Amino acid sequence: MAFEAFEKTPEVAPLLVRLYDTHNLYALAKDSESDGACSELTTIMTDLLSIKLSEKESELITDVLLALMKQAQKDLKKALSERLASMDTVPLRMILSIANDEIDVAEPVLRASPMLQDLDLCYIIQGKGVEHARPIAERTGLSASVINMLADTKDFQVAVNLAENDGVQLTQHAYKIFGDMAKYSETLARPLLSREDLPQDIAGRLYQFVSDELKQNLSERFGIGSAPALAALDDITIEMTTPAHKASDDEQRIAYAHNQQRRGELKFPTMLATLRRGQYSTFMAQFSVYTGLPSNTVKAMVRQDNGKALATACRALDVPKSDFVSLYLLTDRFRSAHKRVVNHKELTRIMTMYDEISPEEARQILKNSRN
């Protein structure tokens, strides 16, 4: 490159010489020796981008640095992304190049770069998907259009990141989507219900799905659960027998249960907690995914008078006997038309039945039932 192009900015030429020499050192260095060269390169590149240049000079420097980055290893790209994330003098095409790179490189810039505007963020979300959307959801000052686009991904981590982001005001559209998602996960419900901009109607819709602790919080903030107009929200609805219940609701619950399973959150205590909150259809979906059995099979199993099918499934999945007993007691309303107290004789019967079931035979029965 002809240094004459920078005759009006003499401090650029020495930096370019250092850049050239350090880049050669970085290219030749072994892995164990490259950290120092990487740090030096990052510093030089940041210094070059910090100098006040003419438009022509800025374009030339950007061309040089982009060409270098195309050949660079990931460690250099990540280090540069972290350095440039907070700068507001970086050429936009440099930031866009980093923001559209693989997520390990792009993340710092996506989360914080002031150079990225609404249109840039929308294109990145649309073109790169949820991995790039997740750090964008942590940015402060997001506009309504970007928030709505993030909400439309219906990605769980995007929803959590936005719910925990105090630097944005969620839109009604986002609250509607996240409110439906939060019915099946306290991980999302907790930060969502703690937001200062939480609308009362969303709080009311979520009230019956959350833990007693969050119910207490909502009661204190909104009077939900005590005001006559909203008192009915505290009455647990048996979802699977509600006339307005739709097949699409079952599909949505199954989908959320699969998401919980992928995240490692679908555990037996989780399902028992769901039952204790009175979310019966949600439990049915969770137990269906947990056992690998169709929903109709699970419903028939739970309603069986003697509880043997339920015991067999629990034995096959190595559920502790105490947890099986809790499950049996919590699902008793499906086996009896009237509320009843399960007596000592009945408890002895189901515990003996559980002990008598062979785990190997139970696993084979469950395997056959899945086919």
Category from helices, strands and their pairing:
mainly alpha
As a percent range, the share of helical residues equals 55-70%
Strand content: under 5%
- Average pLDDT across residues? 80
What is the CA–CA distance across the termini? 69 Å
Q: How many helices? A: 22
Task: Give your account of this protein's structure.
- The chain is mostly helical and 371 residues long.
- Among the domains are: 1-89; 241-370, no CATH class.
- It is built from 22 helices and no strands.
- It has helices spanning 12-28, 34-50, 55-71, 74-84, 92-99, 103-112, 118-128, 130-136, 144-152, 156-163, 172-182, 186-193, 200-207, 212-222, 247-262, 268-276, 280-291, 295-303, 308-316, 321-330, 344-356, 359-370.
- Helix 7 (118-128) runs antiparallel to helix 8 and helix 9 runs parallel beside helix 11.
- The protein is elongated, with a radius of gyration of 29 Å.
- The termini are far apart.
- The model is unreliable at 1-7, 28-33 and 226-245 (pLDDT under 50).
